[in-house]
Structures are given as structure tokens and as C-alpha cells.
Amino acid sequence: MADIEHEFERKNKIKDLTSLMVHKHYCENDSEFIIDLMDKDITWLGTAEHESAEGIEKVSGIFRQFEDKVPKCNVYQEEYSVQKIMTDAYLCSGKMWIATLPETNINLRVHQRITTAFRWYAQGPKCCHIHISNPYEDMVEGDIGFPVKMSKQSYTYFNEQIEEQKRLIEAQIEELKRKSYEDLHTGVYNRNKFVEIVKCEHKIKKVHLGVAYFDLNGLKIVNDLQGHVSGDRLICNMASLLWSIFEGKVYRLGGDEFIVLDYDLNEEDFKKAVFKAKKNLEDNGINFSVGISWRSFNNSIQEQFEEADRFMYDEKRHFYEVINIKEK
User: What gap in Å lies between CA 116 and CA 47, rounded to an integer?
Assistant: First the structure.
């Protein structure tokens, strides 16, 4: 039983090493790793008819020439089987798909085979034979006058790569679009997004609209007395607290000005949400002014923005009047 387990472990080790050699060659172009596994009397047969060599010096020299020459690939659908061919000697047969990565600007996908032979020494296994081959020539059974099957495989792979590049480009465009609408300092939407919403308001289906205009009080005082780092931290805290109540509905219009656009809540729930946001800000020591506007008919972002703006400045005026009185 122990002998069976011993052989099972050895065979699995040979499978793992053969797979690792394939990945090191096609995925990482790491020839030195493969050379370190070679036995001194290694024999090698490559995919091309002229590719063959014997002995560690010749074979390792050829593999070192592969450095930076093999385009990076994906290896998948690997299958390996190992046979013990004599005492401490094992033969591994494998097959796998190898496909070039899109960034290589090479479109190739082939079904490939590998045969390796290992001798097992006291120090561990050493590879004494490597044979790489493709399972078919360009012309295969059923092709007449033209390698149809191979051509179709290349065509399919080429189109898959095109679709993958389209997907990546679309994702990059979406990411750039997202960043163009995101305030990089606070993470909420920026003025660009707000302007875009106003321009496209006619496309938005809304039964009612709630607008809340928040503005920090005393930011200049904080910047002058505590530094701009403290002022920036104050702005970010305010943005985060507003977002926690109105997620996906907060826009930073300027240095310390935030607008909330809400199409979902009825008047009572909207005012409750604004009250909750106000309490969160107050509990975190943030002084602010706010104006709100809510309509269930004739709603207009621009008109309600201006209305909320007036109410907000009425509050702000009162705040600074109180400060002046205290200073006197």
C-alpha cells in the first residue's frame, strides 16, 4: 500500500512539473526555471522540423535564446497522464490549449502536446526528454485544397480577441465617463454631472422632485486657523455624511457647496431624510446652512435649485449676522 501511495505521489509530482514547465515557457518566458530541471543528457524536440538537440549545454543554450522571444500566452484545458516506464523513470503525456494574449498583437490559438521523461534521483526528479508538438498539420482530414479547419479556428479566435478588445475599450470608456462625473476629492458626483442632469432633465421620468442645497459655514475660518488640510477633511466628512443618507443623489458644485436631487421620496419622507442628514452633520460638529425645495407638479431642477439656493443663503446670512453680533 505504501508503494502505491509512493508512486501516486511521484506521478502527481511529474504532472505538476510538466504543467509548470509549460506555464513557465509560454506564460512567463522563464527559461532558467526549465533549465534547472534538465538532466545532463537531456534530449529536446521542438514544434518545428529543425528543432532538436541533445545534451544540457546545447539544449540550455537554445532555451536561453527563447528569453523575450516567446509571446505571452494563456494555457488552459490541460490534461496530463504519467506512466512508470522503468525503475525511477517516468513518462508524462500532456495536451493543452495555448492562446496568445491580446496585448502581444499576435492572434494565435493552438492545441498543443507535450511529452516529458523524468529520472528520479535521491535529490528529486530531473527531466531527460522534452517533446513539443502540434496534434495536426495545417491540412487535416476532411480538408480539400485548403486548411479549412485551422483557418476557422484562427478566424474564431481572432474574432474572440476583437470582441474582448471591444469589451475592454467599452469598460475603459465607462470608467473615464465615471471619473469625469466624479468629484475626485470627495467621491460624490461633480458639477459636470449636475450640469449634464440639468441639460437632460426632459429625459428623466419624475413624478416629483426634492432639492436640498447644503453649504458649509465658516470654511475660510477653519482654513485660516487650522490649515487647508483640516478644511479639506471637513469637506470630505460632509460629503460622506450626505452620501450616507442620499446615496447616488449628491453633487458637489463648488468648494463647500453640495446639492441633493431626489426623485424617489415623497415630501414627508424627503424632509425626514434632510432632517436626518442635518442631525448627522450637527452631531459631527459640522456647521452648515441648507435650503430645500420639493414639488409634485411643475418640478424643475433649475427652478428648484434657485429656490433652494435662496433659502440656503437666508440661513447663511442669519449665521453670519449672529457671528458678527457675538464678535461685537
Answer: 14
Give dist(CA 11, CA 83) in Å, integer.
Answer: 8
CA separation (Å) from 136 to 54, 96, 141, 144, 151?
Answer: 25, 13, 9, 15, 13
Query: Taking the model in full, what pTM does it have?
Result: 0.49
For residues 96 and 79, the answer to whether their CB atoms sit within 8 Å is yes
Q: Which fold has domain 2-133?
A: Nuclear Transport Factor 2; Chain: A, (3.10.450)
Query: What residues does each domain of the chain span?
Result: 2-133, 191-327
Fold: same for 2-133 and 191-327: no
**From first to last of its 328 residues, what are the pLDDT tens digits of the chain?**
667 888 999 999 999 999 999 999 999 989 999 999 999 999 999 877 778 999 999 999 999 988 888 888 899 999 999 999 999 999 999 999 988 888 877 777 888 899 999 999 999 999 999 998 875 555 455 544 434 465 566 667 778 878 888 888 888 888 777 778 889 889 999 999 999 899 888 777 788 999 999 999 988 888 888 988 988 999 999 999 999 999 999 999 988 999 999 999 999 999 999 999 999 999 999 999 999 999 998 889 999 999 999 999 998 888 777 666 554 4
Closest Cα to residue 197, out of 213, 186, 179, 181?
A: 181
Q: CB neighbours of 289 closer than 8 A, spacing ≥ 6?
A: 214, 215, 217, 312, 313, 315, 316, 319
**Exposure class string for 198-216: b at 16+ Cβ within 10 A, else e:** eeeeeeeeeebbbbbbbbb
End-to-end CA, the chain: 97
Q: What is the DSSP string of 270-289?
A: HHHHHHHHHHHHHHTT--EE
Please name the residue ranges forming H helices in 96-217: 148-180, 191-199
The residues with which 54 forms a beta bridge, in sequence order, are 43
CATH topology of domain 191-327: Alpha-Beta Plaits (3.30.70)
